Amino acid sequence: MANTLARATFDIAEDHLRDMVLDGYDLPREFETYRMLREGPLDNPTLAEQGFPGSTEERFRHAGRINGYTREFGAKLPKMNDDGSIFVAGSVVHLFDEPDSVSAWARDIFVADFESHVGKDVGRGQQLLSVEKLEPVGFFDDAVALKAVHSSQRGLVSSTVIDFRVGRILGVAFVGVVGDHLRLETATTLGIALEKRIVSVVLGV
What we know:
Blueprint: H1 2-8, E1 35-41, H2 44-50, H3 57-62, E2 65-74, E3 86-96, H4 99-116, E4 121-123, E5 126-134, E6 143-152, E7 155-166, E8 169-178, H5 184-203
């Protein structure tokens, strides 16, 4: 099944990516009042612009990344002084040239870039204070995760992010929280829902 699914991802085109990211009805009940904050294609130039300082389109293209799509949701009236509240949740899908590029990206770019920027300004008025690698469970194939804590103009915020592989597709599920808090269970729930949606699109079911 794993090899069959991986082979099937080579039939996926860039215009399939929009159908893979989570929609509002895919989210857990705790997010039922959240509204869509942002969605759209995430090509290499855009990702480089939004990424860590020094990110380049050429680096991402050389890593085998072709394109992506993102959709995120947030509270209608976010309470940034409410410690522990989740103010954003969402998903991203990235399309790569081959499955090995997905695993290499997850460790050599996603995790490595976070770890190398601890203690540094990362743009948008934020400083990355700490990164903790996590062990996600329940995924079909290769998966990595981390918790990152940032200082921002609004105060301390943290994010829990999971990257997982489905053939040559990288799925990303994330939550942003006010204060220093781990939300691995919530991120895993989102990630598994995203994985199911990706597989459904890949297999055409």
